[in-house]
Amino acid sequence: MQPDIRAIIAASSHALVTGRKVAGLYDQAQDRHRRIAAEARGEHLQGLDGDRNVKFGGTLPELRETGTGAAIYMEIADGETKGFDRSSSGHFTCRIEDQVVQLYDHADSAWFTFVVQAAE
């Protein structure tokens, strides 16, 4: 799974599970801040990857990203998200705890950690 798609999944997961707006994301694996915003209203999500000027969103269980045209299947269960990126056929699981999102990329067999900057 591409790093940009992992970041979008992390921001989307946090917004959908917590109901809080995401104003930015720190990607620990890439050691950089990402300009990503996301907001959820129920099962509907809208977001912007400001680094790439790409919109993303949709209504669960289907989300789309306009840059590469990636389609993401996502469901919420027990306070976490699970699904897959249709463009890479990569499955993921996201665990959310406070401002931290831990994403497990099954294709890479690795965990990726993101720290969320929540909007007030």
Structure characteristics:
13% helix; 11 strands; 120 residues; 1 helix; mainly beta; eleven-stranded antiparallel sheet; globular; single chain
Topology:
Elements: H1 3-18, E1 22-27, E2 32-34, E3 36-41, E4 44-49, E5 54-59, E6 62-65, E7 71-77, E8 80-85, E9 90-97, E10 100-105, E11 110-118
Question: Could you characterize the architecture of this molecule?
Answer:
With 120 residues, the chain is mainly beta. Helices cover 13% and strands 56% of the residues. It has 1 helix and 11 strands; from the N terminus they run H-E-E-E-E-E-E-E-E-E-E-E. A hairpin with a 5-residue loop joins strand 6 and strand 7. The chain is globular, with a radius of gyration of 12 Å.
Most strands sheet: 11 strands, antiparallel
Helix content: 10-25%
The low-confidence runs, each spanning 5 or more residues with pLDDT under 50, are none
Shape: globular
Give the averaged pLDDT, no decimals.
Answer: 95
The total count of helices amounts to 1
Radius of gyration: 12 Å
Strand proportion:
over 45%
Structural class determined from secondary elements: mainly beta
Q: Quaternary state, please?
A: single chain
Give the strand order, joined by hyphens, for the main sheet.
Answer: 2-1-11-10-9-8-7-6-5-4-3
Secondary-structure element order, as H and E? Answer: HEEEEEEEEEEE
| Strand runs, count | 11
Q: How many angstroms separate the termini?
A: 31 Å
In short:
This protein is mainly beta. It is 13% helix and 56% strand. The relative contact order is 0.25.
